[in-house]
Amino acid sequence: MAYKIIASQCTVCGACEYECPNAAISLKNDIYVINPAQCTQCEGHFDAPQCAVVCPVPDTCVPA
């Protein structure tokens, strides 16, 4: 299952985009979104999804 970004909570800081090992996060219409086809929840790269780890707003990057 991919992760998603709760748009109403996103501060558009950009931290998640640079941490994603699959380049699944991009800026669309002034908000960051995760492409579910590219998101692997960082399996094979990290122990936890890095978008959720680096996000300054708790529970903004969550399982879809």
UniProtKB/TrEMBL annotation:
Entries under Gene3D superfamilies matching the protein: 3.30.70.20
InterPro entries in alphabetical order: 4Fe4S_Fe-S-bd (IPR017896), 4Fe4S_Fe_S_CS (IPR017900)
Cofactor(s) demanded: [4Fe-4S] cluster
Taxonomy, superkingdom: Bacteria
Keywords: 4Fe-4S, Electron transport, Iron, Iron-sulfur, Metal-binding, Transport
Domain 4Fe-4S ferredoxin-type: 1-30
Molecular function per GO: 4 iron, 4 sulfur cluster binding; metal ion binding
Protein name: Ferredoxin
